[in-house]
Design goal:
The structure holds two protein chains of two kinds.
Chain A (H helix, E strand, L loop, with lengths): L5 H9 L5 H19 L2 E4 L1 H16 L11 E5 L26 H8 L3 E6 L19 E2 L2 E5 L5 H8 L5 E5 L6 H7 L2 E4 L20 E5 L2 H11 L17 H4 L8 E5 L9 H16 L3 E5 L4 H19 L1 H6 L6 H10 L4 H22 L5 E5 L8 H5 L3 H11 L4 H6 L3 E8 L5 E8 L4 H14 L10
Parallel strand pairs in A: 2-3, 2-6, 9-10, 9-11
Antiparallel strand pairs in A: 1-3, 4-5, 6-8, 7-8, 7-12, 11-13, 12-13
Chain B lengths: L4 H19 L10 H7 L8
The chains are: A alpha/beta, B mainly alpha.
Chain lengths: 466, 48
């Protein structure tokens, strides 16, 4: 059952073929048996999960259902505040982040019937694309232990790939949902900025942070998004737009949708297997009737620089106390990246914020006049070996981080929705993936394209042998 | 902080230069809030 999709499990629970307690126990058993090799979890709340599952089972017995997640076991990145559980944010401090309110996205999932298994490992302070963590253990890629799971939502991706949870939540400030999803061969959606409330989640950069789902299939990502999206008075940046019925829209044909494949920048210096596989995926979309064509896009380096000025400045402001009072607790690369933010001038920060407005407007006007979505690689190479990415000096490590996340960061600056979809494997068995980028608040189209691709292929049906 | 001062200075100078290069012709009316307007599909005032 731990390899099922949410929809399959939810149907089985609704039909009383499997109980919430059985489903939860199966996940807990698998975590107990295999997470020693993966390190996906920081906190496993077995007692809490089973108590919640028993309560949900009683509700079902009484003829009540909370909805599409009734009895479905989920887990959350350890920067989401879940009452009763500590939130380390990947730091050495067990309860680094506290919030007066439950993470809104978690609360909405819980109200829809989800069982909370626990809190997931992550890169310290969500600052890094590889999933290494000196305090809680490096997260290992379930497809190839010893290789990175991607980050910063490393545990969120690894837990789904390993069958520990049916879905997870992650956060994405520079690629932290899409990168680990790509490394671990699962779906991961960074929604539009403002689509999902960040209330109750540790901020890294209030201008660039996004919360979103990691799931086995694109359809499950649509299901989770439908529940967590929508205005939240606790997050002033959350949009008041209505939430579409993403699941119902999945089956609309993609014939006629215009899909652009960037002819500049996004394939430069990319691993040959990765590039060929992403281009092949675009051809599959073309075979389904999408109008696939090359497109020129604005230079992503400007978007990355502007985004870095904003995110570094905000991260230093938010985490100044830890960086100033207990710098020895931080991993050297995290400390180095935080330090930059203390030295960026107010002038440059404000210019970057003003530039972001213009860059977003220009990108939306120029690129989305001709296409409905973009298809590009997510990571420049399949998940690298952990020891290789951590080797060398701090400078080399930090530079490696920038190179590995260069394909995702532009879309955080732009705030556009971007979906990671697995699309194959390297010759040595590491997942390959594409990202589908859509118009602002048009998650529906990115999900439709991703779902159509998965209906035509079988990569998402494969699972790692742990 | 232990980060070498020279490296931090170089990184900060690099980011500042990158911003300066593209900010030269920013309209006076351009505000950070224009970002949300761009996402929501509204056009900000284009007055320089």
């Amino acid at each position: 059952m731990t390899g099922w999709t949410i929809q399959t499990l939810a149907r089985a629970i609704a039909a009383r073929k499997i109980s919430p307690v059985e489903a939860t126990q199966a996940c807990l058993d698998r975590i107990a048996r295999l997470d020693g090799r993966v390190h996906a979890f920081i906190t496993v709340d077995a007692d809490g999960a089973l108590a919640a599952a028993r309560a949900l089972e009683a509700e079902l017995a009484a003829g009540r259902s909370r909805g599409s997640l009734h009895g479905v076991p989920l887990a959350y990145k350890d920067l989401c505040h879940v009452p009763g559980l500590p939130t380390s944010c990947g730091t050495k401090t067990r309860e680094y982040f506290t919030s007066p309110v439950e993470c809104t996205a978690v609360a909405r999932l819980r109200e829809a019937g989800a069982v909370t298994l626990g809190k997931l490992n992550m890169t310290e302070l969500a600052m890094g694309p590889f999933g290494d963590n000196a305090h809680h253990g490096d997260v290992h890629n379930p497809w190839k232990t010893g290789h990175c799971a991607g980050g910063s939502s490393s545990g969120s991706a690894a837990a789904v790939a390993a069958g520990f949870a049916l879905a997870t939540l992650g956060s994405d400030t520079g690629g932290s949902i899409r990168l680990p999803a790509a490394c671990c061969g699962v779906a991961g959606l960074k929604p539009t900025y403002g689509r999902v409330s960040r209330a109750g989640a540790m901020p890294l950069s209030w201008s660039m942070d996004h919360l979103g789902p990691l799931t086995r299939t694109v359809a499950d990502a649509a299901l989770i998004l439908e529940i967590v999206a929508g205005h939240d008075p606790r997050d002033a940046t959350s949009s008041r737009r209505g939430v579409p019925y993403y699941l119902r829209m999945l089956e609309s044909p993609i014939a006629g949708l215009r899909v652009g494949v960037p002819e500049n920048h996004y394939f430069d210096g990319i691993d040959t297997e990765m590039a060929a596989t992403v281009r092949a995926a675009a051809e599959i979309l073309a075979g389904l009737g999408a109008l696939v064509a090359p497109v020129r896009v604005p230079d992503p380096r400007t978007l990355i620089d502007v985004g870095n000025v904003i995110s570094r400045s905000e991260a230093a402001a938010l985490h100044a106390r830890l960086a100033r009072e207990r710098p020895h607790e931080l991993q050297p690369a995290v400390r180095a990246r935080l330090e930059i933010g203390f030295h960026i001038s107010a002038h440059d920060y404000l210019q970057a914020l003003r530039l972001r407005s213009r860059l977003a407007r220009e990108f939306i006007t120029e690129v989305f006049a001709d296409v409905d979505a973009l298809v590009a690689p997510v990571i420049p190479e399949p998940a690298p070996a952990l020891e290789a990415v951590k080797s060398g000096s701090v400078d080399e490590f930090v530079a490696r981080m920038g190179r590995f996340s260069r394909l995702t960061r532009p879309f955080n600056t732009l705030g556009l929705p971007a979906l990671t979809v697995p699309c194959g494997f390297s010759s040595d068995g590491r997942p390959l993936a594409l990202q589908i980028v859509g118009r602002a608040f048009d998650e529906a189209t990115t999900l439709r394209l991703g779902h159509a691709y998965q209906q035509a292929t079988a990569w998402h049906l494969e699972g790692p042998r742990l | 902080m232990n980060a070498p001062e020279s490296r931090v200075s170089a990184d900060v100078a690099g980011l500042a230069a990158a911003v300066e290069r593209v900010a030269a012709d920013l309209a006076i009316a351009e505000e950070p809030a224009g970002f949300v307007l761009a996402l929501e599909g509204e056009s900000p005032t284009e007055t320089a």
